[in-house]
Amino acid sequence: MEIKELINHQAKWLNGEGLFAHIVISSRIRLARNLKDIPFPHRAKPSDLEKVFSLIEDALGRDKSLSDWGVLILNSLSSIERQFLFERHLISIEHTQKENKPKFVVINKDETVSIMINEEDHLRIQVLYSGLELRRTWELIDRIDSELSEHLNYAFSQEFGYLTSCPTNTGTGMRASVLMHLPALVKQGEINNLIKDISRRGLVVRGFYGEGTKPQASFFQISNQLTLGLTEEEIIDNIEKVSTQIVIQEEKARSRLLNEDKRKIKYSVELSYGMLKNGHIFSSREAMNLLSEIRMSTCLKLIPEIKLSLLNELLLLIGPAHLQLMEGRKLDALIRDSKRALLLRKKLTKQ
């Protein structure tokens, strides 16, 4: 696999389909696994980690349903290319770091599945789907994990469950999350109380890119904090219930916004839409804020309908690494801002 294969490809999880897709952009489940009798990545020698990759590559090749994937050797990629994979939600921020240890990522064709190899753990299996589809996501990742486990000897304790580098992942090794768009709750000043309530339920709130990022432009990732002592079903059930309640609250907040002053909201929306279609310089933050406004307004039918799939895709395409790879060269901040505006004008005008 080569990076250029991904540049002009729309990931399936951005298609704007699935339950509550107008508010829930995606559902993600990640499983952390390590191989028995091989030191965990932070203690392992390069030769150990090469062996890990060889064993995983062999396991993937043994099962026909797991063999049609591409592999990227992260050590051979530039910093921009690694950042590109992070912006596409295919690897973590930690996996972007240039290190001497061998690191890899395996990606399927529609980008719903990625497997980070030699990150914090030997394997980080991830599945992404559009909308609130955690159970569907679990069905796929559980099948992948089960098929891999037939050929790989996982580090597992009868007392503690799957053994991981970080104790908070020990147990199921599962992190389940949903990426939500909550602009009305932000506008109505209700988001801080909501975050406090989420924290009391044992969940954690992060930003658009997940762990290590802060919320911006009304995008919030909500995930479980602990895995030990909970079953996979319990984790999924908890996040599903909380997410459904948040969707209801966001829908009510959107209705209140329209009832309070529809003309003011519509004027603000048309202004944002006009800026995106005619602007010449946008920072990442400015573009994301405007796209957030347009995304809510499209769902409320306040402006000509724009496909959710396009708006979701634009949230990735405006990233610095995406712009530079599409341009084929390194760009300074000002030129990136100009290219970002040009991209938005072209995409929205074509729409």
UniProtKB/TrEMBL annotation:
Lineage: Bacteria, Candidatus Desantisiibacteriota
Pfam families referenced in this protein's UniProt entry, alphabetically: ATP-gua_Ptrans
Keywords: ATP-binding, Kinase, Nucleotide-binding, Transferase
Assigned protein family: Belongs to the ATP:guanido phosphotransferase family.
InterPro entries tied to this protein: Arg_Kinase, ATP-guanido_PTrfase, ATP-guanido_PTrfase_cat, Gln_synth/guanido_kin_cat_dom
PANTHER family xrefs: ARGININE KINASE 1-RELATED, ARGININE OR CREATINE KINASE
Residues that coordinate or bind ATP: 26-30, 89, 124, 175-179, 206-211
Domain Phosphagen kinase C-terminal: 23-253
GO molecular function, one term: ATP binding
Domain of life: Bacteria
GO BP annotations listed: phosphocreatine biosynthetic process
Matches recorded under Gene3D superfamilies: Glutamine synthetase/guanido kinase, catalytic domain
Transmembrane spans: none
CC terms in the record's Gene Ontology section: extracellular space
Protein name as catalogued: Protein arginine kinase
CDD domains the record matches: bacterial_phosphagen_kinase
